[in-house]
Automatic annotation (TrEMBL):
Protein name as it appears in the record: PMEI domain-containing protein
InterPro entries xref list: Invertase/methylesterase_inhib, Pectinesterase_inhib_dom, Pla_a_1-like
Organism placement in taxonomy: Eukaryota, Viridiplantae, Streptophyta, Embryophyta, Tracheophyta
Pfam families per the UniProt record, alphabetical: PMEI
Transmembrane segment boundaries: none
CDD domains in UniProt: PMEI-Pla_a_1_like (cd15795)
Amino acid sequence: MVSSFISSILMSLFLSSLFLSSLLLTPPCHAATSPELLKLACTVDQVTDPKTWNYTLCIKVLESNPKVASSPNLPTLAINIIQLGISNVTNTQKYIQKTLTSKNIESSLRIALKACDQSYDLILKSFQSAFGEVKDDEDYESASYDLSLARTDYLNSCQQALASNKVEDLSISTGSKFVILFSAAADAVCTRLDV
Ligand SMILES: *[C@@H]1O[C@H](CO)[C@@H](O)[C@H](O)[C@H]1NC(C)=O
Ligand SMILES: *[C@@H]1O[C@H](CO)[C@@H](O)[C@H](O)[C@H]1NC(C)=O
């Protein structure tokens, strides 16, 4: 018991020294490796309520996309996160529109879904503008602004419509969580590029 405890302590000491030496062996002016870039993207100070930010989830989601995870530099990382965000937002909006075509939904839900459909139009346009601003113009300040509008004003109008009509939809609340995740992560990268 005791000896296994001690050996596990020795093991962790050994592993941390390996980790530290690998950090020290990295040449200081060498380009950051992807895991470091993802950490930058997930270290956000731009979310309205920091308590809602899940760093672990952010890393997990970004790591699970091969294109994002292998981004060689910050501009490409921003572009790849925005692109992933565009596809996620598009899917959520498709879900909203598909639900709207169903005949047997309550009128309060229908009202809220229509508002969310409009919200997602604006969210999608903001992500698309940010994409062009980063890729074509290297205008990181405008991209940052558009990404922040997407997860604040535009997203809020959908959430308020759901709340005021007293309806809930799990897929839409999950969708909102990812609007925040992708826009805040891309924004964190743009903020670092806008120097
Ligand atoms: C954050 O995300 C991780 C990974 O998905 C999850 O295990 C954890 O429960 C989440 N934490 C909170 C506070 O939601
Ligand atoms: C959005 O992305 C998240 C994270 O990869 C995923 O779990 C979710 O299913 C996606 N949502 C849609 C509607 O594609």
